[in-house]
Fold:
Amino acid sequence: MIWFLRILFIFLTVLGISAITKSNSEIVRSTTTSAKYEPATKLLLQNYIPRLIRLPLPREDIAVKYLGEDLHLIVEEVIPNEKISWRLEGFQNYLHLREEYKFQTVENNVQVEARAELIPKPGFVSRFILLFFGDSTLSGLLDKSLNSLPKP
Structure:
């Protein structure tokens, strides 16, 4: 019985330390598409804003509903034909989700490099949720976004 308690204590200690030390989750993916910068950016933003008419301006705050939560999409940086980045704020357990897309023209196609970063709110529960679900959440998000782009 004492061995069981020792092993349980070691397991819980390692689990607690790993949850406390994990400060964020980041994933990078890339793909090639036939869509140029503006149509590709509109397709990427339509995951959050279904009826997107124009590209948002830098520092623009847009109210969106995503994953059943009311969030704010804040456009951080827009460099035409090169890069766009935004962050989603208002998650229950995460401080914000930041996405960045870089576009490079390669022959007749466009190479898109996507980077997503998820930062938890302070507290053990948020870090614990990030430890178990952060990478899978980001992976699913980037796969969905990049699969919405037309293939060459």
About this structure: The mean pLDDT is 86. The chain has one domain: 1-148. Residues 87 and 98 are 4 Å apart (CA to CA). The longest strand covers residues 94-106.
